[in-house]
Write a structure and sequence with these properties.
Layout: E1 2-4, H1 12-20, H2 28-47, E2 52-59, E3 62-69, E4 73-79, H3 83-92, E5 97-107, E6 113-121, E7 129-133, E8 136-137, H4 141-150, E9 158-167, H5 168-177, E10 183-191, E11 193-194, E12 200-201, H6 207-212
Parallel strand pairs: 1-10, 4-5, 4-7, 7-9, 8-9, 9-10
Antiparallel strand pairs: 2-3, 5-6, 11-12
């Protein structure tokens, strides 16, 4: 199942416009904050599909029965670009566990791209609800590699994969390489073009560099 938030009018698209805007991007703090806000909106939308139990709450005037979240959530992201988006999810799912994966691209002699994993850290994922988020789904290879790396820590009951902007090729690669009926793909927007350097066009550029500065 694929859900695209940008297809419907909402304040989400205000933040999408700002993270794409080359002038506004010059303010790194605002760029990070906008990714964080988008993580919060994704969290709210995903929360509508989670499990809840009724809980009796004592108020100053009596007892109120309120449905409260019962899903056991693990939030995962790919370093470093995913950190602001991850924070947005933590703002809403504040008792969730966290998983982190350090992945990088390596360009082979034949111009193909290999994804290497330097480091991963995750709680037990068995029967948990996994939310794996990264700002960009370009080729899709990093997300797929991260997903299977996480499965070494257990089999989630349900998985939500989140990207702010995806390419059509990235979506196709992911859906072809992850066959899980309990997976939902949440996207902000899908762009048509993936250029020769595997950047999404029009996209927004390098999310990691825009959030934290150019790397060597």
């Amino acid at each position: 199942m694929i859900k695209i938030l940008g297809e419907k009018n909402s304040v989400f698209n205000n933040f999408m416009a700002e993270v794409r805007d080359a002038e506004i991007q010059k303010d790194r703090m605002r760029f990070r904050k906008n990714l964080e806000r988008m993580g919060e909106i994704f969290s709210y939308e995903i929360s509508k599909e989670l499990e809840y139990n009724n809980k009796k709450i004592t108020t100053p005037l009596g007892i109120a029965e309120v449905p409260v979240l019962s899903s056991r959530i693990i939030l995962a992201t790919i370093l470093r670009a995913g950190l602001p988006l991850h924070q947005g999810f933590l703002n809403f799912f504040d008792s969730a566990g966290s998983a982190f994966i350090s992945a990088y691209r390596e360009l082979n002699d034949d111009k193909s791209i290999k994804i290497n994993i330097d480091y991963s850290s995750s709680p037990d994922l068995n029967n948990k609800l996994l939310i794996l988020a990264d700002p960009m789904l370009a080729t899709g290879k990093s997300m797929v590699r991260a997903y299977y790396e996480l499965l070494k820590k257990g089999k989630p009951a349900k998985t939500h994969i989140v990207a702010v902007i995806a390419s059509k090729k990235g979506v196709e690669y992911l859906t072809q390489n992850i066959k899980d009926k309990n997976l939902t793909l949440w996207l902000g927007f899908v762009d048509d073009v993936l250029n020769a350097k595997s950047y999404i066009v029009p996209g927004l550029g390098d999310a990691g560099d825009l959030a934290f500065g150019t790397k060597l």
